[in-house]
Amino acid sequence: MMGKFRALPARAESPMVLSEESATLEEKSEESSPLPEFLENSEAVGALKSVLQQKLEDGEDGEALKVLERIVSAQPEVVEWKFLMARLLGEMGETDRARDVFEEILASNPLSFEALFGNALLMDQCGEGDAVIRRLEDALRTAENENKLKEARDVRLIMAQMQFLRKNVDEALRSYEELEKEDPSDFRPYFCKGMIYTLQDRNEEAREQFAKYRERSPKKFEVEGFLQTPLSRMKLFGTDSES
């Protein structure tokens, strides 16, 4: 499951240090008061992420969720924690709760890439494919009406992904090709086309797409993690990943 939580920064901490941090965090989580003062410290936040990652690696999803619930309560304005909680709830099979979290994010930011994409995946898993498309079309109209070109492009990327999940492979590829022509510097369509070609055993074409992707992608992006994750569940690239 860690393929979907690779955004958590890994730190080279000894087991003893992590154990001490975990104990401190658990003490804070068990207190009746929230954690805002503890979380104001950047080092404490880094330690917290390390503890969360350790719990996820150890398969302690329930414990990780308890920690995230307390953190979200303490820092409701920090969307990163809500994203993590929604993704974890989804992995735990708590689909309705995960969707509620994504909807809460979208209520304040209707064009949030990660919330739109995460919610679309969950809707599709629930058999709401047609509703997904309508939801994304509404988001696209909003972005275009507000002249938010980057957000509109992001929504179209999600729509192409949903086309693929609905087995409209040719339509998905056409969408990626249109996006590629409009902005050849964007690495995301090349990567997505490469993934589709790989799944179709069109290996030579896949290599060509991945080569184009590598020429354009930010060095910080780790392709290996996405290649190990099924295309139907992988997290697409948001605007924060663009160079």
From TrEMBL:
UniProt key word Coiled coil: yes
Keywords on record: Coiled coil
Coiled coil: 133-216
Gene3D superfamilies: Tetratricopeptide repeat domain (1.25.40.10)
InterPro entries: TPR-like_helical_dom_sf (IPR011990), TPR_rpt (IPR019734)
Coiled coil recorded as keyword: yes
Entry-linked Pfam families: TPR_16 (PF13432), TPR_19 (PF14559)
Entry-linked SMART domains: TPR
Residue segments, region Disordered: 1-36
PANTHER family according to UniProt: TRANSMEMBRANE PROTEIN (PTHR36350:SF3)
Name listed for the protein in its UniProt record: Protein SLOW GREEN 1, chloroplastic
Taxonomic lineage: Eukaryota, Viridiplantae, Streptophyta, Embryophyta, Tracheophyta
Name of encoding gene: SG1_0
